[in-house]
Amino acid sequence: MTDFNELIDFSKDIETTLYGKPLILKGVHMYEGPITLQYIPYGGIQSVFYGNLIINVKNGYVCPNKIIYDNVEYTPKEFTSKFEDLVNQILPN
Q1: Is 13:25 a contact under the CB 8 Å cutoff?
Q2: C-alpha dihedral sign at 59, 17, 47, 44
Q3: Do 91 and 45 form a contact (C-beta atoms < 8 A)?
């Protein structure tokens, strides 16, 4: 499991859970674009602007190129369209 209180190593996948099922974020990179201004702790899903899954981490804001959730592979846009209540969810360490 990824510790969101530590700096994210961009050469590794982020591994966590969502709704009790395994969530793997692949190809994670820094997100540069609009965000909302609410406070959210590290590991929190900040927003889903333009189909990106934007997560607050110690390094700043990151988003993945590919998502594997419960052993099913998604693009970020597919994932954010399928699960519409993602914003403000806190991913566990």
Answers
A1: yes
A2: negative
A3: yes
The answer to whether the pTM exceeds 0.70 is yes
Would you say 2 and 16 are in contact if contact means Cβ atoms under 8 Å apart?
yes
CA-nearest of 29, 33, 40 to 62 is: 29
pLDDT for res 38: 84
Separation between Cα atoms, residue 84 and residue 39, nearest integer Å: 20
One DSSP character per residue, 31-64 reads --S----S---TTBEEE-GGG--EEEETTEEEE-
pLDDT at 73: 99
- Rounded average pLDDT per 10-residue block, the chain, 93 residues: 94 97 98 86 95 95 98 98 94 93
